[in-house]
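Whiteboard transcription, Tuesday session. T.W. wrote the C-alpha cells on the left side:
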C-alpha cells in the first residue's frame, strides 16, 4: 500500500501523522504493507 497525496495538498485536512495513527488500529499485516515513499523520488516496487 502506497499512501499518496497525504501532504502538500491543501484540500486534504489530515497529514501523514493522522494517517499513521489510523493505521495503528489496523491488523499487523496491513501496517507492514504500508510504504511511505519520499515525494518526487523514483522507487522500484517489487510485486
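and on the right, the sequence the group agreed on:
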Amino acid at each position: 500500500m502506497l499512501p499518496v497525496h497525504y501532504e502538500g495538498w491543501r484540500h486534504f485536512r489530515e497529514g501523514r501523522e493522522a494517517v499513521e495513527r489510523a493505521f495503528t488500529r489496523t491488523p499487523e499485516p496491513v501496517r507492514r504493507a504500508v510504504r511511505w515513499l519520499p515525494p518526487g523520488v523514483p522507487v522500484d516496487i517489487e510485486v
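Someone added at the bottom: The two ends are 11 Å apart (CA to CA).
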